[in-house]
Q: What sequence folds into this?
């Protein structure tokens, strides 16, 4: 017959009612949760239809119309068994060895008045690490994909509408061993360089292994200074590494019986933290005919960098900087270059604490400017125009001390070239149209046309 129990609790001061919760789980959230209430003046309440052989948890709280107390501490109890004996285990035999790990069939005896059996398979005798926990109406259960060379524990109990039987005796068996292959190392890659003082050693999983033995040493032969670690994972952190040192490491797998051979010996070196130098992209090295109006410089992104410094110079030693700035982008535009000039440029990368080496130095040459409407050229007038014997240049001469004046025919033939002077004699020129250029440090600074009578 189903079990009935009487539940009672001390009255909570000020309470009108006492609430109860009764469940088969400690969280009070199963389908078997039962809740009931009685007045505080009542001594308790009987609860019927409890299951045989079942562990229950219960708690109480006081309540009145406006408030309720916290739940009490949780108490537990286990009801008596209607079924006083559990099933007898049949196979695998207790303490059997070399049992196949691919598919094991657990079998047990049947019990009268039982229509369901619960079986559990665990990696420990206390059943804290349960591998299988299922129910069946049969007296056998296939279990597949176990681990080679491992101890397993199993038990069975019966169940009917009124509850459970006691658990059977606990039996054990050990699966057959397999030949363990050496692990395959993954990271850090062999002969790599690392800029941190810690690293995670990782390798592939080995079928049948229960754990791994890791060795790390400053000796390639592992003959001295060897640190050894055991782990069940396929990753192991190493910290406190020294800059300038090269470390060698290897790993092997093991089970309950044997070990694999060692893996290959891999190495890595610890270096000072640094940033790679950017790689220049455009304008291409040694390119010519680059426009003076808006040159876009670009370079590759550098990992971990958040700023880049670009330098543009009129000489390869960068003693005479034309332009410099810093940017978070991997490109930058510079306007108003000089005509017919060769520029050199380079870029470095940085973060909050590190600065990379400079990139390679690239160069390019801007286009020659011959038109009169170039926005960067000096503006000046020639008079008289037309002229017969002399012309005068109406121009600010303050910055023209190292300049020259050149006169070209309309066919581009150089006719006159002399140090700059605002007054020029043109008597020897034939009648026609001419182009006058002022060059400063060898670069065209301004142009104008005039007519010789």
A:
């Amino acid at each position: 017959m189903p079990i009935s129990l009487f539940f009672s609790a001390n009255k909570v001061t000020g309470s009108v009612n006492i609430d109860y919760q009764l469940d088969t789980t400690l969280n009070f959230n199963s389908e078997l949760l039962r809740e009931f209430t009685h007045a505080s003046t009542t001594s308790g309440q009987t609860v019927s239809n409890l299951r045989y052989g079942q562990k229950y948890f219960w708690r109480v709280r006081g309540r009145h119309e406006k408030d309720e107390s916290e739940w009490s501490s949780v108490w537990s109890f286990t009801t008596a068994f209607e079924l006083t004996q559990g099933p007898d285990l049949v196979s695998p035999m207790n303490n059997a060895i070399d049992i196949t790990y691919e598919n094991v069939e657990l079998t047990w005896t049947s019990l009268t008045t039982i229509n369901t059996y619960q079986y559990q398979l665990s990696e420990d005798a206390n059943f804290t690490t349960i591998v299988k926990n299922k129910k069946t109406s049969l007296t056998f259960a296939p279990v597949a994909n176990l681990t080679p060379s491992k101890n397993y524990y199993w038990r069975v109990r019966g169940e009917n509408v009124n509850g459970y039987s006691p658990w059977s005796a606990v039996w054990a068996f050990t699966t057959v061993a397999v030949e363990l292959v050496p692990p395959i190392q993954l990271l850090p890659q062999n002969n790599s360089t690392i800029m941190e003082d810690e690293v995670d050693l990782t390798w592939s999983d080995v079928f049948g292994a229960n754990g791994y033995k890791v060795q790390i040493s400053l000796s390639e032969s592992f003959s001295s200074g060897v640190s050894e670690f055991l782990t069940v994972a396929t990753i192991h952190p190493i910290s406190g590494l020294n800059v300038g040192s090269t470390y060698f490491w290897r790993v092997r797998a093991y089970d309950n019986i044997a070990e694999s051979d060692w893996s290959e010996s891999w190495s890595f070196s610890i270096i000072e933290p640094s940033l790679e130098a950017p790689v220049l992209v455009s304008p291409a090295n040694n390119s010519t005919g680059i426009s003076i109006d808006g040159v876009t410089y670009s370079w590759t992104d550098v990992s971990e960098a958040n700023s880049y410094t670009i330098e543009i110079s009129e000489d390869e030693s960068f003693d005479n900087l034309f332009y410099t700035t810093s940017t978070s982008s991997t490109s930058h535009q510079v306007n108003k270059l000089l005509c017919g000039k060769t520029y050199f440029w380079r870029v470095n990368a940085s973060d909050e604490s590190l600065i990379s080496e400079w990139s390679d130095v690239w160069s390019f040459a801007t286009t020659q400017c011959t038109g009169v409407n170039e926005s960067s050229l000096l503006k000046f007038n020639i008079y008289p125009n037309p002229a017969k014997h002399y012309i005068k240049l109406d121009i600010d001469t303050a910055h023209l001390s190292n300049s020259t004046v050149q006169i070209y025919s309309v066919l581009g033939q150089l006719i006159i070239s002399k140090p700059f002077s605002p007054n020029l004699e043109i008597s020897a020129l034939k009648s026609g149209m001419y182009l006058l250029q002022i060059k400063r440090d060898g670069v065209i600074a301004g142009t104008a046309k005039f007519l010789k009578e």
About this structure: The longest strand covers residues 151-160. The radius of gyration is 46 Å. Confidence is low (pLDDT under 50) at residues 371-375. The domain at 381-452 is CATH 2.60.40.10 (Immunoglobulin-like).
